[in-house]
Amino acid sequence: MQITERLAELGLPPLPEPLGTPTVDSHTHLASTVEYSGLAVETNLAAAAAVGIDKVVEVGCDVPSSREAVELARRFEQVVAAVAMHPNDAARSTTLDDDIAAIDELASDPVVRAVGETGLDHYRTTDESLHGVQERSFRAHIEIARRRDLTLVIHHRDARDDLRRVLADEHLPARVVMHCFSGDADFARDCLAHDAWLSFPGVITYKNAAYLAEALKVTPVEKVLVETDAPYLTPVPARGKANAPYLVPHTLRFMADVLGTDADQLAATVRANTFAAFGGQW
């Protein structure tokens, strides 16, 4: 079955106009997308390649999904893996020390380029007694990334002050990515002070997200990444349907308009940035 027919059959958005220069989705969940929308990994990657997204970072959120990320990266040359306990999963875990040990072991696989997504999330974990558990997990992940010379991929939501404190307190690894950057220009500057890359999601295309466009404007172009966080955060004009890496061109073209630059030029820059952020080309 043709890609366009399969997307239509699943009720998914059509393929956008292909980019003239390939680029990379720096954060996606291929395995979750299968469950969420029925889009098989093979079709997902083929659709992405058809529009110029020829590489992706598959991200784990707990031990099982991290194992799956490693398996997908072993199977598909377009894919590298990131492994971690998501802060909300860390807060729920009854075996956190064992889980962190398992992540550490998975991080030794050559297909793993990053430890993440880890960090702090006080939006979904509202019980303040669990915020310390998230922080302990976050600090343990920072240590793994630093020791193994892997990229640290940070999730942050409604925990900005605590995140600032941990980042200021810790000896960070050489490469840090702020996943699904959701802050304003001031927070962007804070993250850039740690030499982080900022990864912008489809949210930047939303009418109520002008603050993200302002954050993008103050970010040096060599520190800009793009991501889907698929199957979530679908960009306009496909908002309301499941996300997938093949929809990156919508986000990237919007970002190019914000920056007043050519979309293909930005795609090439983001591609080089992503390889730099994740330790080299794959």
UniProtKB/TrEMBL annotation:
Domain of life of the source: Bacteria
Gene3D superfamilies named among the record's database cross-references: Metal-dependent hydrolases
Pfam families with a match to the protein in the record: TatD_DNase (PF01026)
EC number: 3.1.-.-
SUPFAM superfamilies attached to this UniProt entry: Metallo-dependent hydrolases
GO MF annotation terms: hydrolase activity
Entry keywords, A to Z: Hydrolase, Metal-binding
Name of the protein in its database record: TatD family hydrolase
Native source species: Luteococcus sanguinis
